[in-house]
Amino acid sequence: MKGTSVYTRFVSGVLFPLHERLKHHATVAVLREMEDTQWWPAERLQALQVDRLRALLVDAGQHVPYYRNLFEQSGFDPASINSLADLQRLPFLTKLVIRANTEALKHAQANGLSRFNTGGSSGEPLVFFIGSKRVSHDVAAKWRATRWWGVDIGDPEIVLWGSPIELHVQDRVRQIRDRLIRTQLLPAFEMSEQKLDQFLATIRSKSPKMLFGYPSALSLLARHAEKRGVPMNKLGIKVAFVTAEKLYEDQRATISRVFGCPVANGYGSRDAGFIAHECPSGGMHITAEDIIVELIDADGHAVPVGTPGEIVVTHLATQDFPFIRYRTGDIAVLDDQQCTCGRGLPLLREIQGRSNDFVVASNGTIMQGAALTYLIRDMQGIEAFKIVQESLQLTRVFLVVGSSFDHSRSSEIVASFRRRLGEQVNIQIEFVDEIKPEKSGKYRYIISHVADLAKGTTTPC
Question: What is the reported pTM?
Answer without folding.
Answer: 0.78
